[in-house]
Amino acid sequence: MSDELDSLGVEATEVRDSAGRNVVIAVIGLVLVVAALVPLAYGAIWVGSIVYAGVVSLLTGGPAPEAPVVVT
User: Fold this and answer.
1) Inter-residue contact 43 to 51 (CB < 8 Å)
2) How far apart are CA 10 and CA 12, in angstroms?
3) Residue partners of 57: CB distance under 8 A and separation at least 6
4) How many CA atoms lie within 13 A of 31 on its CB side?
5) How far apart are the first and last CA of the chain?
6) CA dihedral 33, 37, 40, 46 (to 10 degrees)
7) What is the pTM of this model?
8) 4 or 37: which carries more pLDDT confidence?
9) pLDDT tens digits for 5-55?
10) Distances (CA, A) of 23 to 14, 31, 33, 57, 58
11) If you count Cβ atoms within 10 Å of the first and of the last residue's Cβ in the chain, which end, N or C, has fewer?
12) Would you kindly state where each structural domain of the chain is located, as residue ranges?
C-alpha cells in the first residue's frame, strides 16, 4: 500500500482516533435522531386520527364520534 502511495507522492501517516471525540459524535447523533422523531410521531398521530375519523364515519354512515368530554 505504501508503494502505491509513494508512486502518487502521498505520505502515509497514521491518524489517531480519540475515544472522547467518538462519544461526542455519538451523543450528538442520538440527540438529532430523537429530535427528528418528535415531529414524525406528532404527524403520525395527527394523520392517524384523521384516518380513524374517516373510517369510523364510513362504517357508521354518519359523522365521526366526538371525543368524550371530561366533567370536573
Assistant:
1) no
2) 6
3) 63, 64
4) 6
5) 77
6) -170
7) 0.51
8) 37
9) 677 777 767 778 889 999 999 999 999 999 999 999 999 999 998 888 888
10) 21, 12, 15, 51, 52
11) C
12) 18-72
What pLDDT does residue 54 have? 84
Q: What b/e string do you get for 56-67 counting C-beta neighbours within 10 Å, with b at 16 or more?
A: eeeeeeeeeeee
- How far is residue 52's CA from residue 45's CA, in Å, rounded to a whole number? 10
3-state percent helix, strand, coil for the chain, nearest multiple of 5: 70, 0, 30
- The three grid cell numbers given for residue 48, joined into one nine-digit string: 392517524
C-alpha cell at 4: 502505491
Which cell is 6 given?
A: 509513494
